[in-house]
Automatic annotation (TrEMBL):
<dbReference type="InterPro" id="IPR001544">
    <property type="entry name" value="Aminotrans_IV"/>
</dbReference>
<dbReference type="InterPro" id="IPR050571">
    <property type="entry name" value="Class-IV_PLP-Dep_Aminotrnsfr"/>
</dbReference>
<dbReference type="InterPro" id="IPR043132">
    <property type="entry name" value="BCAT-like_C"/>
</dbReference>
<comment type="similarity">
    <text>Belongs to the class-IV pyridoxal-phosphate-dependent aminotransferase family.</text>
</comment>
<dbReference type="Pfam" id="PF01063">
    <property type="entry name" value="Aminotran_4"/>
</dbReference>
<dbReference type="GO" id="GO:0016829">
    <property type="term" value="F:lyase activity"/>
</dbReference>
<keyword id="KW-0456">Lyase</keyword>
<dbReference type="InterPro" id="IPR036038">
    <property type="entry name" value="Aminotransferase-like"/>
</dbReference>
<protein>
    <submittedName>
        <fullName>4-amino-4-deoxychorismate lyase</fullName>
    </submittedName>
</protein>
<dbReference type="GO" id="GO:0046394">
    <property type="term" value="P:carboxylic acid biosynthetic process"/>
</dbReference>
<dbReference type="GO" id="GO:0005829">
    <property type="term" value="C:cytosol"/>
</dbReference>
<dbReference type="InterPro" id="IPR043131">
    <property type="entry name" value="BCAT-like_N"/>
</dbReference>
Length: 285
């Protein structure tokens, strides 16, 4: 079941006109939130933050705002059955809310980390990267390619070999006693969880370095991870790079590994680094 345009629909089929811009061009904006304790008002759910993200994008695109009361109504109904809600707004103000379960392997990934692979931002990129639009093909293709390389996530790399973000979240790294995350000025998504982590760390008087992830910085990271509102924080233990993407080639610490006939560079990080425990305290809601 799902919520659409003011009604609860108890099927898995949505009806859209064949000339709907949302269908033809992905002309929608969306946000995906994790509901804690079945309440939109829990601090970690951050209903306001997700609403502000939608409002900001709608105003930027000069679209019609939805009936926010109906958006909340639909979310309140669906959270009774689903811990994850995806709220989509069409250009004419229609709301569409779907629910799903948490990933079944989430706890394992949080504990032991995942592998990621680098992808060129020139090959794959998100349209209007500072907004979550329905045109998410670039990120989906990047992650699909990463999964074909036995990785779980893709990391976008810009033309200067700087790491930007993953296909589903923001990057975090630990070095020199501080957390590092790429700055918004690099053209990344201002993630809701990213903002929550930065605010929480600053309230704890912990420094957060928002600086570009250059090849020089990457090779000094002790541990890295990615965050989003659903998975919270997942360590990355291995980063692969196909030949043709340059950034890991520039790193003296890179190693060579061979997978059948395909050679790739590889970087390894500690998924059990004690610094992760500091960030995990935020999620003790």
């Amino acid at each position: 079941m799902f919520w659409y345009n003011g009604d609860l629909i108890k099927t898995n089929i949505i009806e859209l006109a064949i000339d709907d811009p949302g269908l033809l061009y992905g002309a929608t904006v969306f946000t995906t939130l994790r509901v804690y304790c079945q309440s939109l008002d829990r601090p970690l759910t951050n209903w306001k933050g997700h609403g502000d993200r939608l409002r900001s994008s709608i105003q930027f695109l000069n679209w019609q705002e939805p009936d926010w009361q109906k958006v909340r109504q639909g979310a309140e109904i669906l959270l009774q059955d689903f811990p994850v809600l995806r709220i989509t707004i069409f250009s004419d103000g229609r709301e569409w809310i779907t629910g799903r379960s948490l990933p079944t392997d989430l706890t394992e990934k949080q504990r032991h980390g995942v592998a990621a692979s680098l992808v060129s931002g020139e090959e794959f990129h998100r349209f209007l990267p500072t907004h979550k639009t329905g045109n998410y093909l670039g990120a989906w293709l990047a992650r699909t390619k990463a999964q074909h390389m036995t990785a779980s996530e893709a990391i976008f790399v810009d033309p200067n070999d700087n790491w930007l973000e993953t296909s589903t979240g923001n990057l975090w790294g630990w070095q020199d006693g501080s957390w590092w995350t790429p700055p918004l000025e690099t053209g990344i998504l201002p993630g809701i969880m990213r903002s929550q982590l930065i605010d929480w760390l600053k309230n704890q008087n912990q420094p957060v370095m928002e600086k570009p992830w250059t090849p020089e910085i990457i090779k000094t990271m002790e541990a890295i991870a990615y965050s989003n509102s659903i998975v919270q924080l997942i360590p990355i233990h291995t980063v692969f790079e196909e030949r043709g993407v340059r950034s890991v080639d520039a790193i003296a610490a890179s190693q060579r590994v061979e997978r059948g006939q395909e050679k790739m560079n590889q970087l390894n990080y500690n998924p059990y680094h004690p610094a992760f425990e500091q960030l995990r305290k935020l999620f003790a809601d």
